[in-house]
């Protein structure tokens, strides 16, 4: 046997492989950076598409001004449940046009009559009460003073309260714009005097009702008829107030008549106005808006609204009012806001190109003209019924969901660290814990899917509604859990995590694209009586959508990395990130979402691609995020004012010098929510500690806890960078949104149970049966 020679060929081969691996890693990093640049470029391109798409809408709105005489009959406290063909024939007859509901929320929870008139005057939320929300709850609604010598006597006080507030309201905006545009006006009654007063409190033609001389509905009708025959452009009539004796603040005296009698008095004025319009210009030539502008007591409701005659010409919306009322500010069939009435009157009186700045609403138009009267009445009744049914359930739901989640955290921490019942018993315990954890993770999407079942029609008591909605949520959560644990993706520990994340994000994305019907009056969604948001993704929806999207991207990318397909993994992260940003920022009209989504997905894409997250690259990523956000916002701002979302309106706030008011309001709301909600603090604390410890100091969990985390990291190389990206997402989401403290809390309600499910699955498989650890990506 000859001498054994050194294996130089093996050494050179190993060296060549090392060089090849470095070259491959470098190419992969370049590919990751390229994909990220392409993703950001795609978002910029989508921003330009918004501008291009806006051009036809602008051109269409300019082809016809849609001007028509308008009579707005305002009152307060009337709901569709008060209306019938026998008791209120005039209000009921307005169904010949378009009908809907009004979200009258002003500065405080319940709107007083003067608040409604001030909202119409300013085109923004305004109030006559100079105090706190707590003081307002028991305070009597102030009477509305009639103008004296052509001047509204309390207007300077109203202006001062508005200047001291946070909504940047300017009472007198409507009256001033009409006067500057050369429109002739007539106000009848004290509330109408507020609506049409100019910024200095002065009025055009006004009919006072304070002396009682002209209070007869027939006399009011005569003045309306004369005004229309004389060519008056805008007539506003105060038809009275309805105050509910059973729902008044503690400091307010009960009215001298019943609710039904008060509503009948309003109906008589509406009837007189209808007769005056028919006798003068005719109902086809004059727009009549009959709108309840305020609540009847302490409980907020969606109020009565109806319109007949020509509607403003905005984009493709033309012709007469037919079907259901809506606006681009709410994007909800059958719901408008008080602040939508201001641009409506201006568009009718001055044309759609009136150019009045500072308005937050959009002209009221109509859709779905093909529905029967019965269907439309059922729709508007359902809207307020659902809003009232869900309101007392939201707080108990979050207390129950949050408290049991904290219990789940505790049980999970113990179960993951201790072995009970031997091998077989421990496996059963882990399997049961995993099922419960996935079920909890499925609750978020199920709260929206529950609204596909009209649970609010199940009886009239809070108990009946609670049982109905709980049953609907449990039904859908069970279905999602079964699919997560029985589908082909169940074989991987991250499979159910990705499935539940995808389902949550997909439900919200589809809802955004189809009218945001599931989030309205849902346990985890938007409440129309609050009037904070009616469409798109609010803070809670964003938290669930963004967290679900990220978990889905982590699950898919991890599968691809383990299969040796890193480039495909980077591509998946980039595509999901771009799609999520588009859905949230454009379809979801969310200003605070993209600044959180882009850095989170960008960081994950870089790390998955093998690029080190240096300080320079993080700064560049944040800069690119700001650039994309600015591009999307400016593109939205370039659209017609009536078509703009929150993004475009924020740009206008910056130009008007009101950006600091918006930022200050966000900070105050976050601090107030955090100080008022003990449950939120309890949820944020354990969830934040769990995520930080899982990333930075797993040893704190003890030897067994650290071991299971390390096993999870070894077998799922994208998990650790995925958790880091989740922390970035939730932290920026907290800072960038008003009421942003709910973002990490709600996001944790989805992420932490699914992470517990992941760890239980890791423990179910004995370590000896596990394959070799996958190469780390960080």
Overview of the molecule:
This protein has 778 residues and is an alpha/beta fold. The protein is built from 24 helices and 10 strands. Strands 1, 2, 3, 4, 5, 6, 7, 8, 9 and 10 form a 10-stranded mixed sheet that branches. β3, α7 and β4 (205-207) form a beta-alpha-beta unit. α1 runs parallel beside α16 (566-587), α3 (113-122) crosses α10 (338-350) and α13 packs across α14 (495-513).
How large, in whole angstroms, is the Cα Rg? 30 Å
- Give the helix level as a range of percent: 55-70%
Structure classification: alpha/beta
Distance between the termini: 49 Å
Number of DSSP helices? 24
Q: What is the residue-averaged pLDDT?
A: 83
The number of distinct β-strands equals 10
Summary of the model, kept short:
58% of the residues lie in helices and 7% in strands. The protein contains 24 helices and ten strands.
What's the topology here?
Blueprint: H1 8-63, E1 70-76, H2 89-93, E2 98-103, H3 113-122, H4 133-138, H5 155-164, H6 173-180, E3 185-188, H7 190-196, E4 205-207, H8 217-229, E5 234-241, H9 259-279, E6 287-292, E7 302-308, E8 323-326, E9 335-337, H10 338-350, E10 365-367, H11 373-417, H12 422-449, H13 462-486, H14 495-513, H15 539-562, H16 566-587, H17 594-608, H18 615-637, H19 646-655, H20 659-676, H21 678-696, H22 702-715, H23 719-736, H24 742-764
Parallel strand pairs: 1-5, 1-6, 2-8, 2-9, 3-4, 3-5
Antiparallel strand pairs: 2-7, 6-7, 8-10
Helix pairs in contact: 1-16, 1-17, 1-18, 3-7, 3-10, 8-9, 11-12, 11-21, 11-24, 12-13, 12-14, 12-24, 13-14, 14-15, 14-24, 15-16, 15-17, 15-23, 15-24, 16-17, 17-18, 17-23, 18-19, 21-23, 21-24, 22-24, 23-24
């Amino acid at each position: 046997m000859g001498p054994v020679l050194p294996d130089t060929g093996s050494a050179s081969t190993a060296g060549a492989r090392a060089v090849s691996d470095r070259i491959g890693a470098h190419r992969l990093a370049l590919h990751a950076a390229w994909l990220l640049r392409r993703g950001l470029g795609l978002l910029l391109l989508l921003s330009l598409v918004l501008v291009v798409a806006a051009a036809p809408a602008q051109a269409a709105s300019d082809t016809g001004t849609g001007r028509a005489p308008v009579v707005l009959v305002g009152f307060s406290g009337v709901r569709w449940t008060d209306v019938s063909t026998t008791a209120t024939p005039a209000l009921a007859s307005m169904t010949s046009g378009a009908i809907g509901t009004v979200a009258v929320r002003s500065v405080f929870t319940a709107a007083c009559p003067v608040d409604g008139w001030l909202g119409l005057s300013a085109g923004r939320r305004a109030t006559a009460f100079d105090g706190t929300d707590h003081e307002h709850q028991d305070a009597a609604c102030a009477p509305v003073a009639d103008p004296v010598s052509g001047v509204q006597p309390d207007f300077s006080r109203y202006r001062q309260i508005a200047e001291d507030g946070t909504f940047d309201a300017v009472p007198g905006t409507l009256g001033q714009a009409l006067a500057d545009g050369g429109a002739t006006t007539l106000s009848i009654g004290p509330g109408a005097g507020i609506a049409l007063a100019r910024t200095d409190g002065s009025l055009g033609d006004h009919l006072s009702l304070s002396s009682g001389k002209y209070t007869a509905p027939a006399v009011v009708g005569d003045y309306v008829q004369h005004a229309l025959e004389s060519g008056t452009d805008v007539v506003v009539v105060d038809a009275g107030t309805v105050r509910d004796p059973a729902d008044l603040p503690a400091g307010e005296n009960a009215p001298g008549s019943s609710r039904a009698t008060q509503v009948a008095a309003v109906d008589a004025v509406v009837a007189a106005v209808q007769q005056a319009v028919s006798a003068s210009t005719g109902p086809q030539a004059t727009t009549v808006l009959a709108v309840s502008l305020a609540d009847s007591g302490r409980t907020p409701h969606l109020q009565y609204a109806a319109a007949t005659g020509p509607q403003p010409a905005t984009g493709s919306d033309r012709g007469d009012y037919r079907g259901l009322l809506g606006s681009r500010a709410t994007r909800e069939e059958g719901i408008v806001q008080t602040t939508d009435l201001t641009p409506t009157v201006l568009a009718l009186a001055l044309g759609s190109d009136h150019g009045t700045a500072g308005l937050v609403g959009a002209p009221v138009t109509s859709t779905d003209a093909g529905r029967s009267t019965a269907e439309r009445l059922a729709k508007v009744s359902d809207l307020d019924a659902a809003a009232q049914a869900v309101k007392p359930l939201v707080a108990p739901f979050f207390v129950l969901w949050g408290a049991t989640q904290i219990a789940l955290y505790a049980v999970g921490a113990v179960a993951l660290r201790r072995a009970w019942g031997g091998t077989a018993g421990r496996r059963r315990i882990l399997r049961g814990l995993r099922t419960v954890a996935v079920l909890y993770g499925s609750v978020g999407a199920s709260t929206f899917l529950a609204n596909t079942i009209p649970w609010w029609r199940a009886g009239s008591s809070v108990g009946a509604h609670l049982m109905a909605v709980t049953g609907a949520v449990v039904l859908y959560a069970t279905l999602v859990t079964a699919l997560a644990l029985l589908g082909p993706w169940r074989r991987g520990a991250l499979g159910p995590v990705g499935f539940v994340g995808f389902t949550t994000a997909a439900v919200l994305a589809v809802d955004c694209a189809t009218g945001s019907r599931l989030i309205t009056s849902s346990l985890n969604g938007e409440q129309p009586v609050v009037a904070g948001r009616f469409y798109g993704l609010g803070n809670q929806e964003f938290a669930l959508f963004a967290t679900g999207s990220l978990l889905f991207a982590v699950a898919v990318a991890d599968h691809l990395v383990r299969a040796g397909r890193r480039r495909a993994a980077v591509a998946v992260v980039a595509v999901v990130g771009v799609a999520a940003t588009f859905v949230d920022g454009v379809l979801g009209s969310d200003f605070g979402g993209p600044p959180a989504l882009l850095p989170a997905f960008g960081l994950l894409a870089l790390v998955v691609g093998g690029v080190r997250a240096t300080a320079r690259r993080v700064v560049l990523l944040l800069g690119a995020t700001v650039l994309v956000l600015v591009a999307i916002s400016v593109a939205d701002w370039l659209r017609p004012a009536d078509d703009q979302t929150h993004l475009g309106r924020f740009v206008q706030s910056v130009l008007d010098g009101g950006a600091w008011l918006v930022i200050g309001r966000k900070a105050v709301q976050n601090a107030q929510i955090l100080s008022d909600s003990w449950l939120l603090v309890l949820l944020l604390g354990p969830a934040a500690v769990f995520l930080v410890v899982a990333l930075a100091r797993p040893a704190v969990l003890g030897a067994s806890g650290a071991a299971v985390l390390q096993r999870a990291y070894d077998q799922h190389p994208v998990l650790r960078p995925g958790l880091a990206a989740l922390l970035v997402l939730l932290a920026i989401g907290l800072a960038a949104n008003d009421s942003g403290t709910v973002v990490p809390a709600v996001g944790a309600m989805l992420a932490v149970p699914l992470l517990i499910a992941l760890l239980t699955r890791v423990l179910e498989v004995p370590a000896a049966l596990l394959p070799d650890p996958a190469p780390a990506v960080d």
